[in-house]
Design goal:
- Keywords: DNA-binding, Transcription, Transcription regulation.
- Pfam families: TetR_C_14, TetR_N.
- It contains 9 helices and no strands.
- The protein has about 200 residues and is an all-alpha fold.
- It has a domain at about 70-200: Tetracycline Repressor, domain 2, CATH 1.10.357.
- Helix 6 (about 110-120) packs across helix 8 (about 155-175).
């Protein structure tokens, strides 16, 4: 799942001012160099030239920093799905929305890869990530529920939300393991495979 990233060109050192993107970039660089568990909020604040109190104006905790402005991305995906014409099939709408959510500029490819390695390969972040995944699935479930005329908490919207998350995470796992692969192509392939497996022609 794509995360809003900051400028990776920012060097560590004391800065006169900062913002969430710059602070996130500094923290991510420290996580990569030292390991997530070895870096404290005080370390990040010192590297950014700010106080500990200022850090918490941007992020509720150290665990939230690698996610960047994830809430803004969720809002964008919710708006994207709300604008999908009703004649677009549900499967196609979800396929396109998930790909768009995970699309990022070519120049951010390596920084995004490093960010996702921290998020998906750090045991400490696994429990915290579950909360983010739940929020992401909820956006999918709300859209599916509206399309099907059922509550988003019903089994079908929830199942589809989990399925879309599974496709995304499987694509990220493959992408992190193979530097030459393209993330959006992997996500597209995941949807294609799911459609093929569960198509009526393959029903037994």
């Amino acid at each position: 799942m794509a995360i809003v990233s900051g400028s990776e060109g920012h060097r560590l050192g004391r800065a006169r001012s900062t913002d969430a993107a710059t602070l996130g970039s500094i923290g991510l660089q420290l996580f990569i160099e030292r390991g997530f568990d070895e870096v404290t909020v005080d370390d990040i604040a010192a590297a950014a030239g700010i106080g500990r109190r200022t850090f918490f104006r941007y992020f509720p905790s150290k665990n939230d920093l690698p996610w960047g402005d994830f809430d803004a991305l969720l809002a964008m995906m919710r708006e994207y799905l709300a604008a999908v014409p009703p004649e677009i099939p549900l499967f196609d709408a979800l396929h396109d929305a998930v790909i768009e959510f995970n699309r990022f500029p070519d120049e951010e490819r390596e920084s995004h890869r490093r960010r996702m390695e921290v998020l998906l390969r750090t045991p400490t972040l696994v429990a915290h990530s579950a909360l983010r995944y739940q929020a992401w699935r909820q956006v999918i479930a709300e859209f599916v529920g509206r399309r099907l005329g059922v509550p988003p908490t019903a089994l079908q919207p929830q199942t589809i939300g989990w399925a879309c998350l599974g496709i995304s995470l499987a694509a990220y796992d493959e992408w992190l393991a193979h530097e030459d692969h393209v993330l959006t192509v992997l996500i597209d392939q995941g949807f294609t495979d799911i459609r093929a497996v569960f198509s009526p022609a393959n029903a037994h």
